[in-house]
TrEMBL record:
Gene behind the chain: atpC
GO annotation, cellular component aspect: plasma membrane; proton-transporting ATP synthase complex
Name this polypeptide is given: ATP synthase epsilon chain
The protein's role, per its UniProt record: Produces ATP from ADP in the presence of a proton gradient across the membrane.
Alphabetical UniProt keywords: ATP synthesis, Cell membrane, CF(1), Hydrogen ion transport, Ion transport, Membrane, Transport
Species this chain originates from: Castellaniella ginsengisoli
Quaternary data: F-type ATPases have 2 components, CF(1) - the catalytic core - and CF(0) - the membrane proton channel. CF(1) has five subunits: alpha(3), beta(3), gamma(1), delta(1), epsilon(1). CF(0) has three main subunits: a, b and c.
GO MF entries: ATP binding; proton-transporting ATP synthase activity, rotational mechanism
Length: 141
């Protein structure tokens, strides 16, 4: 079976590096599914879950807080400021951070600050949703 080489890199570390049969992620204009031989592409990535399916059918799930995607026929690179393996997501921490961001939003007066806080709020909401989804999957197994 043909594979792609996948690199997922955050500001802190390489989160995933390996071969995969398929990758799905939230692109700027909608969800993207990428198979080996995909047309070259560069796109922004929205906050959400990146799914990597290996040859053996196992899957790796990684939360990304947005970023940049580069697709070449046999390689995919995702660069994100924040990327967290699904197993490491903590819903309680994400919800607490979202509550702090909502409080900051209520107290923000400057338009430029407002945009930054709203973007952070959207990312934290996506992170909390991903954490909730994966904690439900873990508890149902």
């Amino acid at each position: 079976m043909a594979t792609l080489h996948i690199e997922v890199v955050s500001a802190e570390a390489s989160i995933f590096s390996g071969e995969a049969a398929f990758i799905a992620l939230p692109g700027e204009s909608g969800d993207l599914g990428i198979l080996p031989g995909h047309t070259p592409l560069i796109s922004r990535v929205r906050p959400g879950t990146l799914k990597i399916r290996r040859d053996d059918g196992t899957e790796e799930h990684i939360f990304v807080a947005g970023g940049i995607l580069e697709v070449q026929p046999h390689a995919v690179t995702v660069l994100s400021d924040t990327a967290i393996r699904a197993a490491d997501l903590d819903e309680a921490k994400a919800v607490a951070a979202r509550e702090r961001a909502e409080e900051a939003l209520r107290n923000t007066k400057e338009k430029s600050d407002l945009a930054v806080v709203e973007a952070e709020l959207a990312m934290l909401a996506a992170q909390a949703a991903a954490a909730r989804k994966f904690s439900q999957k873990r508890s149902s197994h």
